[in-house]
Amino acid sequence: MENRQTLAWHESLELHELVAFKSIGLMKMKKALPMITDQTLKGLYERGIRECSEDLKELMGFYENVPTPMEKREDDLRNDATFFEGDLLAFTKAGVRNYAIAVTETATPQLKEVLIKQLNKGIILHDTVYRYMYKKGHYPSYNLTKLFENDMKLANQALSM
Questions:
Q1: Which one-letter DSSP state was computed for residue 137?
Q2: Does the keyword Heme apply (predicted)?
Q3: Series of mean pLDDT values for 10-residue runs along the chain (161 residues)
Q4: What Å distances lie between residue 154 and 18, 77, 84, 87, CA to CA?
Q5: What's phi and psi for 156, nearest 5 deg?
Q6: Are 129 and 89 in contact (CB under 8 A)?
Q7: For residue 21, which of 59, 82, 116, 153 sits 20 to 30 Å off, Cα-Cα?
């Protein structure tokens, strides 16, 4: 395999998905940490925060290789409402993936029917959340430069919490 200076489009988009997922997860862990009283669980959360932070920093290093130039803008960091939008979008997407896998693993017709019904509801909810975010300008899926720029802001915000 040749050593390329840029990432392929499809891997750039996978990178976007991972950075957004990890950023939201890191923020959730950091917000939850002060409420955890069990020391073992607190230690697990601290480990999760540390490892997720390391992962994010490592992934962010690849953004210099995405195939579109990234503009540096001084917009305000995302507010909590945008965080909750992204969290709901990630949750619904994970649900769709989980249900799709469960459907392929299910042999009982009645259970499969319920899972397919719930999968379809999850797909519709995911689409509704996405369209809401897109309309508000919080998920610029057709502007990769802005999309990747938003990823970097979200990741930096998660790391700086």
A1: T
A2: no
A3: 71 89 93 96 96 93 77 46 88 93 92 94 95 91 87 89 84
A4: 12, 8, 12, 12
A5: -65, -40
A6: yes
A7: 116
Q: Please give the structure tokens belonging to residue 88.
A: 């709901």
Q: Which of 121, 124, 103, 126 is nearest to 113 (CA)?
A: 103
pTM for the model: 0.65
Alpha-carbon gap, residue 160 to 149, rounded angstroms: 17
104/99 Cα distance (integer angstroms): 9
Q: Tokens at residue 135, please?
A: 């309309």
Tokens of 114: 């319920």
Taking the C-alpha atoms of residue 89 and residue 93, their distance in angstroms, rounded to an integer, is 6
The residue ranges of every structural domain in the chain are 1-77+142-161, 79-137
